[in-house]
Write a structure and sequence with these properties.
- It is a single chain.
- The protein has 13 helices and twelve strands.
- It is of the alpha/beta class and 328 residues long.
- A hairpin with a 4-residue loop joins β4 and β5.
- α9 runs parallel beside α11.
């Protein structure tokens, strides 16, 4: 009887899946994965300094709440109003004056309040999740405030996530690398532990230089990613962002990760192969194509229809989650 109970217990243990990034790509990913019986941890970049997050960051000295709140909204029950409440944005300019209400996301303000109560951002996230009964674990990538700088292919240095994200700089707006400041920012210990003890670690999708890489270039996170025995999966974006990865092919994403980490530690790559839906020209995005396959023969790549046909800049949450779940 005891052995039978042990076997049943082992079978019932949920796989521990860690998702790195925190932006819209990660939000779409976890929105699909939450429908499966998994233990999810999301490690979110703390480099955001634009929009509502940037304004609250400057005004109150808080870590950027926006991506954390978006992840909370994504993990909230599908049939509740909680997701809508957290994402509700007051009328006005999201890039407006720091001390004005207009343009702020309600969830960002609530997390700012929890931060005031707790005096610690990681604790504030936990308390807010408990208060709203939001499942799974969301963690900041770092325990200190960070900023990022990027170098373009013309060796120009751009400082600040907002300028990088929106292409607010001169010259060719194609990036070569990104770095975090302070250089040796302290990683969140729970995030490091989660990566080292995960069954699966997923990087991407999402903005390569402003969401993905700012997490994994943190020293302790890069080290834990290298040392982790987890199955590691990299999800390539559906389309290239004009100010970050214009013209990138799949191999260029791999090379960018390799440049920043010294190696490409991922066992599998998930790639979209459906290009039928037309991307509206106003966005100036173009599909990421699979070329130079001979250069990635040593890596297992998974080609599937992953595009959101209603908005083909992004992955379809259900399609992506189904493929991820199938391969873990």
């Amino acid at each position: 009887m005891g052995n039978q109970q042990l076997i049943m217990t082992k079978k019932s243990v949920k796989k521990k899946v860690v998702c790195l990034g925190g932006g819209i790509g990660t939000v779409n990913l976890i929105h699909g994965l939450k429908d499966y019986d998994l233990d999810l941890t999301v490690v979110v970049s703390m480099a955001d300094d634009g929009g509502s997050s940037g304004r609250l960051r400057r005004l109150y000295g808080i870590f950027p709440p926006g991506d954390v709140v978006s992840c909370m909204a994504s993990l909230a029950p599908n049939d509740s109003m909680l997701s809508q409440i957290l994402k509700y944005r007051f009328a006005g300019d999201r890039y407006g004056r720091d001390n004005e209400l207009g343009g702020h996301k309600l969830g960002n303000l609530i997390l700012t309040a929890f931060n005031d109560f707790e005096g610690n951002f990681a604790k504030a996230i936990k308390k807010m999740q408990e208060f709203f009964n939001i499942p799974h674990t969301i963690l900041p990538a770092t325990d200190e405030s960070v900023t990022i700088s990027a170098k373009t292919i013309q060796d120009r240095y751009i400082h600040g996530e907002e300028k990088i994200d929106l292409g607010k700089y001169q010259g060719k707006r194609i990036l070569e690398s990104v770095s975090v400041h302070p250089e040796h920012a302290k990683a969140n210990k729970e995030a490091v532990y989660a990566i080292l003890n995960a069954d699966v670690v997923i990087l991407g999708p999402g903005d390569l230089y402003t969401a993905q890489l700012p997490v994994v270039v943190v020293d302790e996170i890069a080290k834990s990613l290298k040392e982790s025995k987890a199955k590691k999966i990299y999800v390539v974006n559906i389309a290239n962002k004009p100010f970050e990865t214009r013209g990138y092919k799949v191999i260029d994403y791999i090379d960018a990760v390799k440049r920043h980490l010294g190696n490409f530690y991922f066992d599998s790559i998930v790639i979209n192969n459906n290009f039928k839906s037309e991307i509206p020209k106003k966005y100036k995005y173009h599909y990421v194509r699979m070329k130079d396959e001979n250069k990635i023969k040593s890596i297992n790549y998974i080609l599937e229809d992953l595009v959101d046909d209603n908005f083909p800049l992004y992955h379809d949450s259900k399609k992506l989650a189904k493929i991820i779940h199938k391969h873990i």
